[in-house]
Amino acid sequence: MSKELAMELINVRKKIGKKEIIKGLSFSIHKGEVFGLIGPNGAGKTTTIRMMVGLMQLTEGDVRILGKSIKSDYKAAVREVGAIVENPEMYPFMTGSQNLNQYARMIPGITNERLREVVQLVGLEKAMKEKVGRYSLGMRQRLGIAQALLHQPSVLILDEPTNGLDPAGIREIRMYIRRLAIEKNVAVIISSHLLSEIELMCDRIGVIKNGELVAIQQVNEKTEHNHLKQVQIEATPIEQAIQLLKTEHDIHAVQEKEQISFKSEKENIPALIQTLVGHNVSVFQVGIATSTLEDKFFDLIGENTIE
Amino acid sequence: MNNFFKLIYNESLKIYFRKSTWIMYILLGVIILGLAIMVNIYGEVNEGYEQNSWREALQEENAELTRESEQDPFFQDFNNSFIEINNYYLENDIQPAGYDAWQFVMENEMLLSIVSLLTIIVAAGIVANEFRWGTIKLLLIRPISRTKILASKYTAVLLFSLFTLFFVLLFSWLVGAVFFGIEGVNPYIVLEKHTGLEYVSIIGEIITGYGFQIVTLVMMATFAFMISTVFRNSALAIGTAIFLMMVGNQIVFFFMERSWAKYILFANTDLSQYTNGNTPWIEGMTLGFSITVLIVYYILFLLFSWLFFTKRDVAGH
Ligand SMILES: Nc1ncnc2c1ncn2[C@@H]1O[C@H](COP(=O)(O)OP(=O)(O)O)[C@@H](O)[C@H]1O
Ligand SMILES: [Mg+2]
After folding, report:
1. N or C: which end of chain A has fewer CB within 10 A?
2. Which ipTM did the prediction report?
3. How far is B235 from chain A (nearest CA, A)?
4. pLDDT tens, residue by residue, A262-287
């Protein structure tokens, strides 16, 4: 990949007291890429993000944003970052626009035009005159994103942005995150403890567990390798179907309740069904379980860690 | 620099957009009104004197006071000082000014402790609240140094204090003007000072009276600001600062005999101990000494605030 580096973590470590919370993270994110940081609660996602934006000091290692070190060139580095860390907390006694203006005044060159633009992007035009104390969590997430985008950062960091959002809200966030990455070439880092919620918006996913990066996975890899799928067929008589698959296709199928279950490549499925139908087996239903990333990471991190 | 003004503006908005700030001002206003009403009802306010009859009026007053003292010796001391003041006017042939807005403002000097109280509340919250609200995370991820942000917060506290002080002065004066009228641009009155009776400018009295208290105000506000930044807890900052402000003098009295007593902050906050006719609290203390001690405390307070604000992680709870 010849894409430009947006952010780079180099052997980042964090010790609090005697406890090592982050144990040497190294990875990089390119411009225009959406990177998902997945891990169970307490894995160290928020701590990592706090270090990325300079809220916490690094015990060891460095974070570079467009090549600028957060340690030695803080102002220049953080100028390129917009973020929500943990919950999108705003001043509850101020209106949406008063809140945004607070942040607009802190960076030179943010015009009213730009303010309108980000408000429009997150769809909060109607709520701008309302006190943030009365906002729903979803509205605060959006205002948080607006705040993070005000100064047109090269890197956008969102810590659990899907928390407390309904599926429609998640879909909406996915939409403008993808748009930012594609149209504005922004590098986006999203953390979540729920893989399913952000899988669809990420180009690449890093799995973090106990402060360590245990896997990095390109999301579209799964469609490239067309490996075996889990297939379920509901058919009668069921014993005959199992027998036919074995004799005609050398497939070892098992009975699960009223269905038979086996592994096969997707392309073979029509032929299998033809065989069954050709031998007067009645087929009621065919189902394919797409092997998602979730299955893959389930093995990696174990059952009870990804909720 | 322009940038710094915007930060101060931001901080001031955070102070003034809050309902609690408005409630503070309303309370202040109510207290001032209440005082005016009390003075009007219970205070024996002299309405001023006629140009050609004030001498007779004062003599009559003195006769009245003497009679009262004879009937009830309880009033004797109190009345005698009035008589002396009246005599001072008569002997020096000065027509006394009536009670007016200026005198009302002068007598409201103790309102400055309420200004101190409000300043402490604001100073205690200005850093700690950002942590409580969680907004500190958004505030500190801007291309602005933490030092600058802290400085803007401290400046906003001082400006709030200044503004509140002006509010008290102006509102007292206006209420005083409505209730008692105005006797001139810069009226003089006879006051009992440590050196005896003196004919003084009321505005001068207001400036020194309020001015000496500003030292305590600034020191305690800075103290609350420090506690707020170090412990990130506004209740603790308000509690300790107000407690110390109230018992400060007792602390000094308690340790009076110790050799280090003069290094206690509160032994040095009242600079009026060095004015004419007063004796310093502890022997050997001088104005220069007190100012040095005050500056050292002040720098320490700010240094601790700065160290904790700039060096410490903003971690989760
Ligand atoms: N201030 C702190 N002091 C001590 N331990 C902390 C602190 N903040 C976080 N931790 C610990 O660090 C680990 C990672 O926390 P966090 O980064 O919040 O995880 P995540 O965001 O992935 O849920 C947790 O085990 C948490 O208990
Ligand atoms: Mg977290």
Report:
1. N
2. 0.84
3. 19
4. 888 877 888 889 999 999 999 998 88
